[in-house]
Amino acid sequence: MKKDHRRNRDDVVWSRFFWCTIFIVISCVLFTGFNFSSFRFLFFPPPERLQPEIVPRWRMDAVATAAGHGHDSPRKLDGKEKKVWIRETVILPDQVLLFLNYPPSSAVTSPRLLTRDDLDCVYNFSSSPTARQKNSSRPPNRVDGEIVRCPLLDRSAAVSLSVKSADTYAGGEVLLNARPARAWHALAYEALIDRDNTTVVFVKGLNLRPDKLYNVSRFECVYGWDFTRPKFILRSEVISIAQEIARCRTPLSLLTNPFNSSIKVTVRVKGRVTLNSVAQPRPNPDPEPGPKPHQLCICTMLRNQAKFIKEWVMYHDEIGISRWFIYDNNSEDEIESAITLLTGSGYNISRHVWPWVKTQEAGFAHCAIRARPSCEWVGFIDVDEFLHLPSGQPLPEFLTNLTEGTGGLLLPFQVGEVRVACHSFGPSGLIQPPTKGVIAGYTCRLFAPERHKSIVRPEALNSSLVNVIHHFHLREGFGFVDADRATMVINHYKYQVWEVFKEKFYRRVATYVADWQDELNVGSKDRTPGLGTRAVEPDDWSSRFCEVNDTGLRDEVVSRFSDPLTGTLPWEDEAETMRQGL
């Protein structure tokens, strides 16, 4: 009897244990399945059609907070939703960038962008241990679309915006909340989704050497709203990385799910650091079917070149350029108005605001991606550089003959790049900027060419997009040829009158070139011999850099462009001509 009782009690214990185990297993399976299903729908929606996402309340609250929708987010003021808000803040060496988020456009209405007259930059010095001044405000330096550039008064001051105008955004004077500031030198700052659905990320802070590909296993790409919250980020492999450019495998959700439009991307050095980011991946427009509309385009990066761009565009249009991509690197002059006047006259020009400091190589790579759908060839030159064909042959025809005929030579590769030597011109005895433009004004140059610039076929570029300003790395099967200096050169009006030249001391745009005011690499070829690190005009400046009198391009331009009655050139500033003629 005791044995039977003990056996029955053991059976009850084992039965309870068995059913408890079954319950725990089923619960774990259901919980795991639910979370995996949510993860799958969030990052890998079915390819046939977009499905609505079912997300737990706790996760939606966290995602909303990370995306800027939380109770303490910049999108709310006194608990009310704002129609425009500060998305990001980045501190540059001499100013503060504030990125605004606007409501999306609809088929009926399009949001009005705030202007400089609508805004004041407001500085809170309460967190600054050194600042003795009270909170103050200043007008913005400039407003370009969603980017507001505020003066830099104190690096530790929190910068917000005051909306002065009573409009649909504010309804009266409203303060747009400050955001935590990012440092410009350790930041993922731009991102494009390329045609192969990879993400090209432009990032500072990796400190990679120029002109070199790196081992991708050391890095990974990270997508998310808030990189301090590991639960809400997605990691992706790096396909290639060099200089300031990483190519990442894009998560499927980013390509198909509009819920992820506010996601940012950055690069993480494994085992070390995840860099801050303001880069939201945006797709590059797909090419139109059929031949590309432009045989030859130009990419350039500039700052304060409004008074020179008219001559540069009109001349290159005459020799066969049909499309210009202008990367504006924090200009403070009337460059936007100058470009608007040119586009109104029929020139196909786009201005791309590019505020990032010392990023010329990255900017050219970014431009190469944007130009590829519409341009067979792209030249990368500056606004003080002019392509010169002494024969007068149109440039597209010259390129075709050079790259397809190759002078009767059989090359073991397709031509993907044409390198053109640069002749550097000096002040040519002038004290004031020439009224007829740089081509007619500067006619004396150095004997030997300095460096070269390139015209490239975007389809031939290596996927890493590595470049060193003057040329890109090319894909396998492509190579470069040098243009004969007797058939094509670049007139580089590098050493102009001191009033113009001294602007080069402000900041060099290339990543791996020291600013001239820094006591670094004082023997660099980028520097001007004998000038040192201070913008002080030498007594003999107007006569320097003059070894060869070269009037070839001037004579051609005067012959082709001059008004037969007045002798004026189409880009002359009549008011300036009259002033200097008095």
Architecture overview:
It is a single chain. This protein is an alpha+beta fold. The protein is built from 11 helices and 31 strands. The strands form 6 sheets. Strands 12, 13, 14, 15, 16, 17, 18, 19 and 20 form a 9-stranded mixed β-sheet that branches. Strands 21, 22, 23, 24, 25, 26, 28, 29 and 30 form a 9-stranded mixed β-sheet that branches. Helix 4 (306-318) links the parallel strand 21 (294-302) and strand 22. The longest helix is centred in the N-terminal third of the chain and has 42 residues, at 2-43. The radius of gyration is 29 Å and the shape is globular. 34% of the residues are buried. Residues 1-10, 29-72 and 577-582 have low confidence and may be disordered. It is an enzyme of class 2 (transferase).
